[in-house]
Specification:
439 residues; mainly alpha; Proton glutamate symport protein
């Protein structure tokens, strides 16, 4: 029987303690909390540094090892269909809950009294959001530029092209496939080192958020924040829950399985920080490397469930807060524009708020200046957006793997056992990014 690790060495406990300390620092000494921002920035920066090379190696190795280019196209098509359906449901969920619970009712805000200057920089970026700019942004200017620009989709495009070309080389390219396999192990090894600093990054990120915006800033808009978190939980349980059930696993077991990653996301307000480790954990469940490598990173741009709920809920909130009536036609327009702009906003700095501004411009009856109402609490909602996105993309990857026949019979039973900690993870992913807990 394996010796149980001391509780203070368990990653998720370390991160949870760090988050609590960060909140306390932010409340007791806001200046100190604000000054700790570099701790979170450095951790996020280190993870982002590794995302491009890791995704490239994982996808290239997966495609080249598979040797079946038709399967690559089939996986991509299934993933996009799933993303579109579930993303649309997320938009509808935010819209319906907003209309039913009416979190903005009673505010009676006059937009003329708001400081529109604070949102000018976000509105100025909306010209870069949309389907055409989005498609153009997928193509990097140079090969190396894909890795320095911070766009996962650009790296994914290069990896798919590289993997296809490598597959067509046949036996002459086998040495390069082995090299990619070795490089992937090295990348996960580096991630393993970086992830040890997750508690420090979480402490810095949470201390900065609370210290900068203050707990008092939550009071007036607590109803919106509460409604958003409630809607996200509702979406995970009532939408992702049945999807997971029909795919053969429990959404609650899955959330427990990735609790370490979710706590890191909570502390850093960034879903990017867990992308490398999520790739590994999904492989451990028995999914193929090509499925995980293609579906999960692509979901960062095409399956942002948390952000989609945020878009429609916030717009309905602002309409109610400014006493702006929205007709059925305007609501339909809102859904259509949000469905497009949510894809087009990928890769833009301050993506969610910029995309929200772009969507509001398409419904001119709601004063854009009203965005100033929520800019101060946006950081408090970013954690929920990121958490929902990670869970949603994890479920999507497993579902597509199920559709591909990768989780049938004993494989599916093994997945359930791993999620419930009744079995050790598969050794397919040789280098763990986080040491597994003892059970």
């Amino acid at each position: 029987m394996a010796k149980r690790r001391p509780w203070y060495k368990v990653l998720y406990i370390q991160v949870l303690i760090a988050i609590i300390i960060g909140v306390i620092i932010g409340v007791v000494s806001p200046k100190t909390g604000t000054a700790l921002k570099p701790l979170g920035d450095v951790f996020i920066g280190l993870i982002r540094m590794m995302i491009g090379p890791l995704v490239f190696c994982v996808v290239v190795q997966g495609i080249a090892s598979m040797g079946d280019l038709k399967k690559v196209g089939r996986i991509g098509a299934k993933a996009l269909i799933y993303f579109e359906i579930v993303s649309t449901i997320a938009l509808l969920t935010g819209l319906v809950v907003g209309l039913l619970l009416r979190p903005g009712a009673g505010f009676n805000i006059n937009p003329a009294t708001l400081n529109a200057g604070v949102i000018s920089k976000f509105v100025s970026q909306t010209g870069h959001v949309g389907p055409i700019p989005f498609l153009l942004s997928i193509v990097p200017r140079t090969f190396v530029g894909a890795f320095t620009g911070g766009s996962v989709l650009q790296v994914l495009l290069l990896a798919v092209l590289f993997g296809i070309a490598l597959t067509r080389m046949g036996k002459s390219g086998e040495w390069l496939v082995k090299l990619m396999s070795s490089l992937t192990k090295v990348m996960f090894g580096i991630i393993h080192i970086i992830i040890l600093a997750a508690p420090i990054g979480a402490l810095g990120g949470m201390a900065f958020t609370v210290g900068s915006y203050g707990v008092n800033s939550l009071s007036n808009l607590a109803k919106l924040i509460g409604t958003f978190y409630f809607t996200a939980v509702l979406f995970v349980i009532l939408i992702l829950g049945p999807i997971a059930y029909f795919a053969g696993f429990s959404i609650f077991r899955f959330i427990a399985y990735i609790k370490d990653e979710l706590l890191i996301v909570l502390g850093t307000s960034s879903s990017e920080t867990v992308l490398p480790d999520m790739l590994l954990k999904l492989e451990r469940l028995g999914l193929s490397r090509e499925t995980v490598g293609l579906v999960f990173p692509t979901g960062y741009s095409f399956n942002t469930d948390g952000a989609n709920i945020y878009f429609t809920l916030c717009i309905v909130f602002l309409a109610q807060a400014t006493n702006t009536h929205l007709s059925v036609t305007q609501l339909a327009t809102l859904l259509l524009v949000a469905a497009l702009s949510s894809k087009g906003g990928a890769g833009v700095t301050g993506t969610s708020f910029v995309t929200l501004a772009a969507t509001m411009i398409a419904v001119p009856d709601i004063p854009v200046a009203s965005l100033a109402i929520i800019i101060g609490i946006d950081n408090f909602m970013s954690e929920c957006r990121a958490l929902t996105n990670v869970v949603g993309n994890g479920v999507a990857t497993i579902v597509v793997g199920k559709w591909e026949g990768e989780l049938e019979g004993e494989k599916l039973n093994e997945l359930r056992a791993i999620m419930s900690h009744r079995a050790a993870p598969s050794e397919k992913a040789e280098q763990p990014a986080v040491a597994p807990e003892s059970t």
